[in-house]
Amino acid sequence: xxxxxxxxxxxxxxxxxxxxxxxxxxxxxxxxxxxxxxxxxxxxxxxxxxxxxxxxxxxxxxxxxxxxxxxxxxxxxxxxxxxxxxxxxxxxxxxxxxxxxxxxxxxxxxxxxxxxxxxxxxxxxxxxxxxxxxxxxxxxxxxxxxxxxxxxxxxxxxxxxxxxxxxxxxxxxxxxxxxxxxxxxxxxxxxxxxxxxxxxxxxxxxxxxxxxxxxxxxxxxxxxxxxxxxxxxxxxxxxxxxxxxxxxxxxxxxxxxxxxxxxxxxxxxxxxxxxxxxxxxxxxxxxxxxxxxxxxxxxxxxxxxxxxxxxxxxxxxxxxxxxxxxxxxxxxxxxxxxxxxxxxxxxxxxxxxxxxxxxxxxxxxxxxxxxxxxxxxxxxxxxxxxxxxxxxxxxxxx
Length: 398
Fold this sequence. Notes:
Blueprint: H1 3-24, H2 29-36, H3 40-68, H4 70-88, H5 94-123, H6 128-157, H7 159-179, H8 201-204, H9 208-237, H10 242-292, H11 296-325, H12 330-359, H13 363-380, H14 392-395
């Protein structure tokens, strides 16, 4: 078998497992509320801490991947991530939940994107967008499959056993995935091939373009972290059963597959600027609709629209960074961009939970996310046009 596609399998399985479990956390909200009386602000704050650590550790993970390769980094982080989910089964106090999310789960989140997508970028120099979309479809499959499984485990065995089963399963799957990951061989006579083409991190951070991309990430990431986390409990507030509310997350996963594959293909053709713009249009439209929609079936339609944007955003960033800055320091640059996203992504879920606890509705939170997204779209329109992969202009932007 072509070794490139073994790597694609490993990267996809990593995405499937990490994000599948992350999406499932919202399914446990009602159980934790019932048993401990913990507020949604508190429960959201735990995941927000993990998102913040994801950003910090993405910078570290990107550099470790550039230096040591993906296999060792993903094996260690995958074991710790699975242990973290299993340990949630033993919590009795809020500080324990914060500790687990801020360390073990944050470590797993901090490496899953930057390591897998940087590795894919190295293997597929001329099809980065398409193959990134394929790998991120693994994420979508996890979003489809794992939350309903979590709901079934909770119903059949209770929430503590459900966390143990999910955590142990994650360890096994993530170790298998890590063993499939490696960097491409260095071609004789080519100093690390295309990996040496492009800007260093020090060069990139001096450009306005770099900071604009960081700001854009900061502005759309809050929606991507907040909507999935609060969506299931929002559906229950609107009268859905737990199983039907969990299926909303599956709809995000299914529709995001379309977004990932479509935008992965388009970003190679139309460039990052235009791909970003399309994603923002879908996101803004869906967020406006969420402010007003209360019916169950209309909500499913809106969430399908949101899912396209969700999947598209997670696909366009890595190849866009590669097109603008090259692959020389892709892990470090991409990891830093992710960090700025997780600053917004860590704050927004807490504020959303606080808004609900204060006014008993998510409408004002959805409005705030809409305003952030509109600002992000304005910044996208200031980006330069990106040529196809390999053009010198895209490797050395002004």
